[in-house]
TrEMBL record:
Pfam family, one: FAD_binding_3
Molecular function (Gene Ontology), one example: oxidoreductase activity, acting on paired donors, with incorporation or reduction of molecular oxygen
Cofactor(s) the protein requires to work: FAD
Domain FAD-binding: 6-339
Keywords, in A-Z order: FAD, Flavoprotein, Monooxygenase, Oxidoreductase, Ubiquinone
Positions of transmembrane segments: none
Protein name: Ubiquinone biosynthesis protein UbiH
NCBIfam families tied to this protein: Ubi-OHases
Biological process according to GO: ubiquinone biosynthetic process
Similarity section: Belongs to the UbiH/COQ6 family.
KW Ligase (keyword) present: no
Gene source species: Croceibacterium xixiisoli
UniProt-listed InterPro entries: FAD-bd, FAD/NAD-bd_sf, Ubi_Hdrlase_CS, UbiH/COQ6, UbiH/COQ6_monooxygenase
Record's keyword annotation contains Flavoprotein: yes
Length: 404
């Protein structure tokens, strides 16, 4: 059988690599298979995206030994400002004195670097890069995958972590509910004259949300933020081909001067926005995590955090089972993971979809009603605290790895 391990993780992105590392810290060995070339993934400028890491997700990184490598690169989110087109009725989420921040912003490249460096030093992780899977097999005795070069990888449990277009999920015949928002997220880095003071801006326009996410100042002391601008599919190509001057003018018009004069910091990119959720996240000796199980709108910055909660729950379920002498692919363990994560991920997915549709209704009356609702939340501290706890990811039953 060769090198049989507990886990066969198909997909070596942020969620898949975090799972491999978290499992290794609990004594589980894994094969990680990824089609990408690490040198390209880790190259400067490969991916301009940035991710909001919630308090719970930061606890996970701390508990698996990544905090020291990441701390210097993260920018604390001190507050979140939510506004309907910069009209009166702004909603501010600011933690009470003594509470933790609402999260940290990281460039995705820094997250990948920390994960790959930690995995390279971990003997319980076997990374198979630039590898294509030609065969997947699951039965009552175990799982295996065959790579294009003929290598056979054996394990007790197969994990689908390949993202939204997961071939492992599709191969298993798991039903997916999905729809296309017919929008694209335009991603760009900005430098700006005024400091952001750790404020994340979520400005809602009928065409889609316009988010300004705080990043650390660069080596030259320039203030930086990440832009995530949602535009309709038919407008995306035009926005991407605008000259730099014209693009910045459009961005400044939507920012209403909150960060002062701006300049571009790197190239623009985009990706399509859609919703999907699998009816089930497990099968015979199979578990889905991250975007393979659920893809949501980036409106609340919870996509990656949702996947990291999958990681924490799955590792806890497997560790508890192995203490009892159960095989990692045992159906009872997978049923527990299904119960734990199925409802939570679906609830978050529906909430983000509802927000997207609610703020997408044009017209003065819908805008007035939305601002009235935001004003009511602004004046109700317990409700505001609940929203902040949701943003921090500290509500509900938390896996041990996500606890402080």
């Amino acid at each position: 059988m060769g090198d049989k391990r507990e886990l066969l993780i198909l997909g070596g992105g942020l969620v898949g690599m975090t799972l491999a590392l978290a499992a290794a810290r609990r004594g589980m060995a894994s094969h990680v298979v990824d089609r990408a070339d690490p040198a390209e993934l880790l190259a400067e400028g490969f991916d301009g995206r940035a991710s909001a890491i919630s308090t719970a997700s930061w606890n996970l990184f701390t508990n698996i030994g990544l905090a020291d490598a990441l701390e210097q690169h993260g920018c604390p989110i001190e507050s979140i400002a939510v506004t309907d087109g910069m009209k009166p009725g702004r909603l501010d989420f600011t933690p009470a004195k003594g509470d933790s921040t609402l999260g940290r912003m990281f460039a995705n490249r820094q997250l990948r670097l920390a994960l790959h460096e930690a995995a390279a030093a971990e003997p319980l992780i076997a990374l198979h890069s630039r590898a294509n899977v030609t065969e997947r097999h699951r039965d009552e005795h175990g799982v295996h995958a065959v790579l294009a070069d003929g290598t056979r990888l054996n394990a007790a449990l197969m994990i689908a972590a390949e993202g939204r277009q997961s071939p492992t999920r599709d191969d298993a015949g798991l039903v997916v509910a999905k729809w296309d928002y017919r929008h694209r997220a335009i991603i760009a880095g900005l430098t700006h004259a005024k400091p952001h003071n750790g404020v994340a801006w979520e400005i809602f326009y009928p065409a889609g949300p316009f988010a300004l996410l705080p990043l650390r100042d660069d080596d030259q002391g320039r203030h930086r933020s990440a832009l995530v601008w949602t535009v309709s599919e038919e407008d995306a190509a035009g926005v991407l081909t605008l000259s730099e001057r014209a693009f910045l003018a459009e961005v400044e018009r939507r920012m209403h001067g909150v960060l002062g004069a701006i300049a571009a910091d790197g190239p623009r990119s985009s990706y399509p926005l859609g919703f999907h959720h699998t009816a089930r996240i497990t099968g015979q000796r199979l578990a889905l995590i991250g975007d393979a199980a659920h893809g949501i709108h980036p409106i609340a910055g919870q996509g990656l955090n949702l996947g990291l909660r999958d990681v924490g729950a799955l590792v806890e379920v497997l560790v508890d089972g192995m203490r009892l002498g159960l095989d990692p692919g045992d159906a009872q363990l997978l049923a527990r993971y299904e119960r734990w994560r199925g409802l939570d991920s679906f609830s978050v997915a529906l909430a983000t979809d509802g927000l997207t549709r609610l703020f997408g209704i044009p017209g003065r009356l819908p805008s007035a009603i939305r601002r009235l609702g935001m004003g009511a939340i602004q004046r109700t501290p317990p409700l505001k605290r609940w929203f902040m706890d949701e943003a921090r990811g500290v509500t509900g039953k938390l896996p041990e790895l996500l606890q402080g």
